[in-house]
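forwarding from the other thread:

> can someone predict this with 2'-deoxycytidine-5'-monophosphate?

sure thing
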Amino acid sequence: MTRPRPVIAIDGPAGVGKSTTARTLARRLGYTLVDTGALYRGVALAARDRGISWDDEAAVMAVSNEIRLGFVSQGDGTPRLLVDGQDRADEIRTPELSAGASQVSAYPGVRRALLDIQRDLGREGGVVLEGRDIGTVVFPDAEVKLFLTASAEERARRRVKDLQDRGMTADYHEILAKIRSRDDADSTRAIAPLRPAEDAVILDSTSLDLEAVVQHVLELVESCN
Ligand code: DC
């Protein structure tokens, strides 16, 4: 069955600019934006709420089956995560929850629990989903598949600038080490590791600005119409 409007899958490592790219595209096209990483963060947060250790695979999996996850769209179209109907979007953006999400995302039971939610959110098309396995597992039939890359050093530089722009202090070497360790965990896990789909367009954004990346994807969208 063909969808009237495409599913756009954007995958790639942490800090590569997936969120900004996906948000800009969704706004320009009038599509829904789905931040799938927020779902893994939501599972990690819900486990912590219940005093469950992220090392306890069976208990974390039970949590992922128990909770209701969803999004509510903010005025500018940014999705805010709801866990059991509560807005938890601000709590999931800490370095601790980044590490927790990476850990719980390696559990097959958690990935299974989140698969149907992601498919339901994208089923109708007219949606931009960003994550790690959208083009390979969640929507292998996505009409547009982009795999964004950039060197770890460039991603660390961007993260430092982003934090500084928001008035925070940031240590480049610490951030680079964290990016490398998350890359390693996300791409070496046994299930749904981070890798481009065979039919994905791979775009190295190390020396491209946001507008160039967005234009590239808009052309891909045009060509599938
Ligand atoms: O995109 P993010 O940083 O919010 O993602 C948090 C973690 O969730 C990340 O370390 C890997 C995992 N993740 C995943 O395994 N599959 C996805 N589709 C999205 C995120």
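The chain is about 50% helix and 15% strand. thats all i got for now
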